[in-house]
Amino acid sequence: MKKKIALFLALVMLLTVGVAGAASALGEEEPSAADKEAADKVAALIDAIYVQKRTETTDADCAAAKAAWDALTDAQKELVEGEEADPDYFGRDTGDASKDDPRNADEIGENELLVVSFGTSFNDSRAQDIGGIEKALADAFPEWAVRRAFTAQIIINHVQARDGEFIDNMDQALERAVSNGVKNLIVQPTHLMHGAEYDELTEAVAKYADKFATVTVAEPLLGQVGADATQVNNDKQAVAEAVVAEAVQTAGYSSLHAAEKDGTAFVFMGHGTAHLAKVTYSPR
């Protein structure tokens, strides 16, 4: 029995050596300590800016992370792994950032319409979705200068580090408005509901309220939260009907009733939240 076990182990060792040798022969060498060290340094730089609130060093930190990434070989880039870092942070193709307009120009004028979004690091989506909303507002209200702010610094840092696109956070956008002599400010969120991000938005605006002649903060898409899921305001009703109608049409049905007869159900998913606004997701 012992001889059989020994023979089995010997065969396993030979196979392991053989596989390693074959991989080496094919050029699939084990990463060196230097490769791992270079990748780890980049991972640390990404982790440092990943959730960093904007500081005096943010611009330099973002630039340093990108420069270090660019200096890696393709093989080293695949080794980047940290608490938050991975090769996709810089390496994932999300579209052409140059097609997006960060709307952070000065010379605003007296009337500003500040469109505030959570944000996205996906370039195509940012240009088409968020950018599409901003353009529609600019076309509808030509007498107002439309500007952009994101509430997610994690997104702002990512886009800045990877693509060199600078997007204002709330404080930057409001400081820009003040320094440009804006008198009338309208803040239009693209947020879904009165959640944590919307609370942060209103708190930021409140700090600057006395800097403007008039300040108006619009409701998020679903309007007021309500005490519980049974309270459905006009905004919620309108959004629900529009979303369902689009889903039914996209699925190729003439009506929701036709989809139901065909045994088709539509399920809508939300991000979820620990905020009291979570009642919005509750069934009623």
What does this structure look like?
With 284 residues, this protein is of the alpha/beta class. It folds into 3 domains: 61 residues, no CATH class; 121 residues, 3-Layer(aba) Sandwich (Rossmann fold), CATH 3.40.50.1400; 48 residues, no CATH class. The protein contains 11 helices and 4 strands. It has a 4-stranded parallel β-sheet with strand order 2-1-3-4, with helices on both faces. Helix 2 packs antiparallel against helix 3 and helix 3 packs across helix 7. The chain is globular. The N terminus is likely disordered.
Q: Which CATH top level class of the largest domain fits?
A: Alpha Beta
What's the overall geometry?
globular
Strand content: 5-15%
- Poorly predicted segments: 2-25
How many strands, what sense, and barrel or not for the largest sheet?
Answer: 4 strands, parallel
Question: Percent of residues in helical segments?
Answer: 40-55%
Radius of gyration: 26 Å
Total of helices: 11
Order of strands, widest sheet: 2-1-3-4
Total number of strands: 4
